[in-house]
Amino acid sequence: MFFQTWRHVFKLDPDRGIDDRTLERVCRSGTDAVLVGGSSGVTYDKTAGLLARLRRYKVPCALEITDPSLAVPGFDGYFIPMVLNARDRDWWIGRHAAALKRFGRMVPWDITAAEAYVVLNGDSAVARVTDAETGLDADGVAAYCQLADRLWRVPVVYLEYSGTFGDMELVRRVRGMLTQARLFYGGGIRSAEQSREAARAADTVIVGNAVYDDPDAALATVEAVKSETPV
Q1: Residue 231, domain member (yes or no)
Q2: CATH code at position 159
Q3: Checking CA distances to 150, which of 84, 99, 158, 218 falls within 20 to 30 Å?
Q4: C-alpha dihedral sign at 152, 154, 90, 84
Q5: Is the pLDDT of residue 63 over 90?
């Protein structure tokens, strides 16, 4: 699949402003891809506008589709998130079935992949929107990840700490038990050292908020991640 060699990814939110100079630095940083997505305030027009700006550069671009109305054509790949620990089934199967009933014939399956999210920061926007059960112990997290990897054969498991730096021992444990899924990690990376820690624990490291809060620190994560190997 299109994401199999990604080690470092910048995630951009269409609902957040980014100036042209910062966007250029992100796209020319050496990151493996830019992932576009957000938990609230995302619209078709905002997403299409961001894609148009990204297309000035050669960096691969992928879109997380949380609603079929946001499916902007022209991306190199598409992810369909499923929040496994959401209390509302709509976030792991309901919306997906409804969307496929209407638009299944239009899906570019060769560049579309499912993402099995486990959301672990209860204070994050994504946890509130999905009503995620974030108070899981390590065994509970592992159970969801095995469900995605072994039973459902989902190609991406995404541990999302969204805004806070996560438990790298848990991330490493999850990666060690996956048999075919690639492990994405996102959350709270604001320094090269944190990105190196995450790179040793996960297959792919996602850097998001730092792009907006401290672009210089965010850019330093690219080399830091690529200098490490998962162990």
Answers
A1: no
A2: 3.20.20.390
A3: 99
A4: positive
A5: yes
